[in-house]
């Protein structure tokens, strides 16, 4: 049985250093995100840390040195990652060409209050090093990365400081940003859900499609059921993807025999709904677009032959 789901939140930072950048691609870029929304931006062209969301201006109003401190820190980080990138090129015996070093870390605050965090490095689009913060060790992705692993583990304080940041300071900043941006980040927009039916290329088989869109936050529970039981193993689902307006959408597909379609329902639960929606295909006599917060559990009629 689906229940309305609460939301979790994350604070993540992505750094990218590039060797021999091309036009329009700075040598160094850093972007910070709360959930899926960019909040800060820095690159080697501007060399300034700047807000990427309007509500982030409030941080500087409360702390006049916030942006300057962040800028000076990123100057040092930019230099460090450029040097590390040159070192990795030597480790891999490479000369020239386009090479990238990425540093990614972040923390999560789950709806039940639990916390999580990660830190990893990537080289040329592949994993390089990952921090195992529970055991204060570094995991190397290949033999070359073992060189960096040995160097980092020779200074245990690096892993200890990283663990402390991810579990404490990062979560504190996440909570602070959520408060600054609460009108955007803590809002709820209920899903608008639509059920359609499509004649499959396979004879005598139809595909029921359940689409939920326009919802926020990202967390949603959606499933096809048959006689009230989940059809998870018979369902193909798209990933939850963003819309241009900052909301999200998801689609679920399941193949059914025409005489069986009356047994199927799409159930959707979301924080923006007071209770889960239960929806069924209503047939071509008048396809109903289900508005936010509405649902139906009526019997099913015949099936449309194409997408609307």
UniProtKB/TrEMBL annotation:
The keyword Transmembrane helix applies. Keywords: Disulfide bond, Glycoprotein, Immunity, Membrane, MHC I, Signal, Transmembrane, Transmembrane helix. GO terms for biological process: antigen processing and presentation of peptide antigen via MHC class I; immune response. PROSITE patterns: IG_LIKE (PS50835), IG_MHC (PS00290). Residues 286-295 have a biased composition (Basic and acidic residues). It is found in: Membrane. InterPro entries: Ig-like_dom (IPR007110), Ig-like_dom_sf (IPR036179), Ig-like_fold (IPR013783), Ig/MHC_CS (IPR003006), Ig_C1-set (IPR003597), MHC_class-I_related (IPR050208), MHC_I-like_Ag-recog (IPR011161), MHC_I-like_Ag-recog_sf (IPR037055). It holds the Pfam family C1-set. CDD domains: IgC1_MHC_I_alpha3. Its main location: membrane. It is a single-pass type I membrane protein. GO terms for cellular component: external side of plasma membrane; extracellular space; MHC class I protein complex. Residues 191-280 form the Ig-like domain. Residues 286-308 are annotated as: Disordered. Belongs to the MHC class I family. This is Ig-like domain-containing protein. It comes from Varanus komodoensis (Komodo dragon).
